[in-house]
Amino acid sequence: MSSVTTAPEASPIPVPIPVIVIRPSSGWISLKLKEVWNYRELLYFLVWRDIKVRYKQTALGAAWAIIQPFFSMVIFSLFFGKLAKMPSDGIPYPIFAYTALVPWTFFANGLSQSSNSLVDSANLIRKVYFPRLTIPIANVLSGLVDFGLAFIVLIGLMLYYGVVPSARMVFLPAFLLLALVTALAVGLWLSVLNVEYRDVRYTLPFLTQFWMFATPIVYPSSLLKEPWRTVYGLNPMVGVVEGFRWALLGTKNSPGPMIAVSAVASVALLIGGAFYFRRMEKTFADVV
Amino acid sequence: MPTSSDAAGLALHVEGLGKRYRIGRRLRYKALRDVLASAAGAPIRIARTLIGREAPPPPEQTIWALRNVSFGVGHGEVVGVIGRNGAGKSTLLKILSRITVPTEGRAEIRGRVGSLLEVGTGFHLELTGGENIFLNGAILGMRRTEIARKFDEIVAFAGVEQFIDSPVKHYSSGMYLRLAFSVAAHLDPEILLVDEVLAVGDVAFQRKCLDKMQDVGRKGRTVLFVSHNMPAIARLCERTILLDAGGVQEDGPSHRVVANYLSSDVGTTAAREWRDPASAPGNHTARLRAVRVRASDGTVTDAIDIRKPVGIEMEFDVCEPGWILSPNFDFYNEEGLLLFGTIDTDAHWRNRVREPGTYTATAWVPGNLLSEGTVIVDAELLTTHPAAQHFFERQAVAFHVVDSMEGDSARGDWGGSMPGAVRPLLRWSTRVAPLPDAAPASVGKSDAP
Fold it and tell me: What is the ipTM of this complex?
């Protein structure tokens, strides 16, 4: 009987014992994406919390997801469409603007949420270990619900204006992914900078406003001649917005090369941002 | 206790661990404005930095929070970590929890780690109790299925069944903490790192948590337990590591390390005084000024003759009139056992409102009551109606009870080990009767009324 209780090593262990080695970080940094994957349940709960809290805390709840792009559309249609007679590629101006505003709002909110995410989660970062990448990722992902709601309104508008989408609509998820990647990429850079320089929070509204006018939302990118139109694609949101219009509204001039440039720019930003994030990650708990 | 250097047999192996912080520069976040201002003001210095000619930061700008720390913890061991504030306890735990990275050295952990640096991390006030259980559980590293399985147990342990579907913002602070601790207490890792989380909730719940922790230890889990609560350390851990100024000062059996810590300069002693009211325990009503141990002749000492009374003195300022105040003390032995508590029952002050002033209340413990060894005293000031705690200083003072073996203590002439929480000198009496001639009569006597 005593032999049963003596050796703890003798007891069968169903899974191999994980060994964690803690040491000063060396020069080479890996992204450890596998670890982020292992923490996918936490990611799920963080997204779930963000959504739940947002709709619980605000009086209008889910309505905000629609109000923001919809009223922007109304104002833009009035000033840019009616008064300034801005060209809109032969599409009714309200739907021209709203189709761009839906992905733009998703991007802008995702960007500002993820940029503030690390500072806002300071308490978590100081007290618990988990891959820090999950924080900005969760913040961007939680915006998908708002996007979905705003998109339903977009479908309504398309019906109202009698716009029939073509088979190109199957590419829409790719453009949404591009918006998501761009928001995350820039969010990664800014969230890290925000830990170090709290000014980032105050720079954000200005940055998003500036970026919005640098993106063809109130005007079509066809105002530019090639090759400048393709160069314009270096702003990844150009590819997203023109991609949405191309897939849903059937705008004439194919934005192919421009979207390719946007995709490359966005992925480059994301990879750079992820490595920068991982490099700075170890100091978060000491600084934030 | 593991003494072999074979790391494979250990749950936790720490070797030469060190963490350096840069003070003033890194610890505080920067404003871009500061950077720009310094760039504008000192272009030459910036240029020098850029070409690498700038001198490294002077040594006084860095501080080693932890240096050359090495130890091993075997599987199933429950080890306490003690030390005064700033000794590096929290830094050690943060490194082992992977929240921060060490500057030098290494640590190896074999097994699933759960760390509890705080209870209720990630709790959101808008979410319900049930939702917070899932969120907090996930943050602490539990799987969703695992949380779902233990859900009812967690709720029952916290005793919040009726409120589980209401947002935690409507919870009382006690309920909130009970729920938070309950989630943490149901973590089931192989290695548990705990930081000072037991200072939550009411006394009965603290007790329940300590029992749950003891359970964890008995199940063969490895626990590293950082605390200021010496009685808890002594009771839960067989072995304790004393950290001082970032290094391991002592590593050994808990009762010995705790006793040494308490009797050394770094620990609590026979007299504690708070010169600066801002840092003294207390609130706007009353503030602790000093706690002292006095021998029967009035001298402040930490060595008390077991036969003589010992006075525990609490000096405090009453800053706000209108309160009825009850000073009280709790006495623990070095094993963490609560020997007894005592409340000021002096008829003069019992129902009397106190005017502002400095008060000194002394409780006299009679001689021949305490056992030999170290006695640790917590000092507290309470108001019963309405219930309020003005200050509660754990391990305010400590003293040693010594038997000089002169034959007139409870020991009598016995010189060996004499365990027991108390050692009263009892009055013994003996009756003697002559040996009975008939055996049956003797049996009959013991059966008599």
Answer: 0.82
